[in-house]
Amino acid sequence: PTGSPTGSSGAGLPGVCGQPQHPPPRQRRARTRAGAAQKRVPKMGGFRSGRTGFRSGRSAACRGGVTSGRGGPASRGRRLPPPRMAALRTALAAARSRSRSLGRRPPPAPCSASAAARGAMEQEPRWLAGLRFDNRALRALPVETPPPGPEGAPSAPRPVPGACFSRVRPAPLSQPRVVALSEPALELLGLGAPPADAAAREAREAEAALFFSGNALLPGAEPAAHCYCGHQFGQFAGQLGDGAAMYLGEVCTAAGQRWELQLKGAGPTPYSRQADGRKVLRSSIRELLCSEAMHHLGIPTTRAASCVVSQCTVERDVFYDGNARPERCAVVLRLAPTFLRFGSFEIFKPADEHTGRAGPSVGRDDIRAQMLDYAIGSFYPEIQAAHPSDRVQRNAAFFREVTRRTARLVAEWQCVGFCHGVLNTDNMSIVGLTLDYGPFGFMDRYDPEHVCNASDSGGRYAFSKQPAVCRWNLQKLAEALEPELPAALGRDILEEEFEAEFRRHYLQKMRRKLGLVRTAREEDGALVARLLDTMHLTGADFTNTFFLLSTFPAGPEPTGLAAFAAVLLEQCASLEELRLAFRPQMDPRQLSMMLVLAQSNPQLLALLGSRESLARELERAEQQSRLEQLSPAALRSRNEAHWTAWLGEYRARLEKDREGASSEEAWQAERVRAMRASSPRAPSRRPRGTTSRRQAPLAPRPASPQAARAAPDFWLLQVRRVLRLLEAPYHGEGGPVEPDADSSKPPLWAAELCVT
């Protein structure tokens, strides 16, 4: 026997997902009482009261002696005679058996690598057998040699100098089950459509659960974790890396494409720091849905092919209030040409002047050159071909293209109201993809200062600041490429390219959203800016307003204008919504202290980074005061005046766009077609639980939360249903639009939702 009552090695009970876990205090007390009650046997020395649970290592009983918890002969170190020792072992075995049924809940399913799990690792795929791996990244870039030590040592947190990857092994999960498969993403791997036969679909899902959870490895897969650094909220954080993600390898398809496969949430890596390398179900569902939603919106993004949930649980403090609770582990299979990011090149950064942190590979210019050769040769072959012998010009062309792609990407975000939430340099892709879906959000009421990440108290990553932050991140990438890219050349490229490319792409998209399909005019930028100002002043819903503009009566006779204006005004925020939006965020005492500080020591206020927070809070207070004096009728009248003024400008601009059209009907058709292809009808807020009146649910909705818990497949079916809805976000060309069918505003309680 060992010090663990279950016979597992190491300290404590076998934990969920491979982590040691101590039983709850009440369960510990029950086990201690059970061990002492049998024939009045002294307590085992391997038990200890308090929060530490069980002692590690071998217990006193294993050494041939028993130490009593409180006095008695054993406490004086006397040996028990053999008959008494045999009786003690029998009593302890009985106590362990009974103690499993005691306590608040049964012990969670152990998720350590058991013999059964290791057997699963060796299973052969059937449906996935055609995937052909060619892991070029691991051949082209340095891979860390695993440190010597016992099992689990390769995943121990540590600095990783001189390497871009570390070998890892997924930690198996208990009873994995598929939540959803994205068929369009799986088609990229050449896996084909799902079978019509129910039994075949079931077998397919079982295989997906096994291999896409990390419980088994596909032939040719070589799990590794990527080493990178990053600037987080403007400060260099040093080594970060794939703390919860694992590179599986690169699949080459018959179509000539190469896709990097990655498991997110598959267990600890050398970069997990103090975390467990797991992701929970709620965040995994969000990543699956948003990755695929962004793709179908036409925005460059990494893809999510599957989400698998398990019976393993991990503790998460959801509200950061000290009340951690168990949540089920889940794993997402992600696809991308590459997951290299700006932070991949920051591992060479010397000690930062502000934080004192440095990258793990300072001075390794040879690895930086290797990374550039790999990135350009693999993902920008046209640049490599154009500059075969001039490294500086090749690297400049690479940085120029990354700058352009990033500018276009953030312009796409601004046109659909998408907030990333954590635009750190380690979350920026070198191939211009939306990367790492954490506390993201889509705006409802238009607010340029909207912050979707509740952890971003300073508003660094607010919606309107995303373009400037992306440019700042590009500057950090340019610095990380030195000396391969001279500093002055990097600054010049950024100055020349970013703003011009962003504005060009942004206005191109906005013109289509407004139906300006024939001519581009200099004043279009001002028209868009005044539209956004009007939306802000009236609290209009971002997604629905743009979609409804496709129904604007643009003919020579303004018939239906009053009806259109009435529908548009319904998308404006109510008085109650505005009062909720502008309610004070600071405690009155904190506000008073900051006002005093602003007068007595403004330099300290600026150093604390609180100047903007104070300005926003004062603006909220002023708006709240105005709203208290406003009636609903006065608010509607004010909104109507704002919209009447802008719609007049818009009508005049449409008249100019129609000039020279071959026919009124052809121009109208082209205008509506462009608008409906640019402004989504099915807003990406649907994953919050709203449903379309046009789509019947896959299963009857439970009558109560209790009934929902009794129907365990209900939430799973809804996830699959929403995933399918998000595949068609744009309205078709034909048929009239019913503005009230799918364009209802989110409920008032949605404003209280908080994601960190």
Short description:
This protein is an alpha+beta fold and 756 residues long. Helix content is 40%, strand content 9%. It starts with 24 loop residues before the first helix and ends in a 14-residue tail after the last helix.
Description:
With 756 residues, this protein is an alpha+beta fold. The protein is 40% helix and 9% strand. It has 24 helices and 14 strands. The strands form four sheets. Strands 1, 4, 8, 9, 10, 11 and 12 form a seven-stranded antiparallel sheet that branches. A three-stranded mixed sheet has the order 2-3-5, with no helix packed on it. Strands 6-7 form a two-stranded antiparallel ribbon. Helix 10 (391-416) packs antiparallel against helix 11 (466-481), helix 11 (466-481) packs antiparallel against helix 12 (487-513) and helix 13 packs antiparallel against helix 20. The two termini are 44 Å apart.
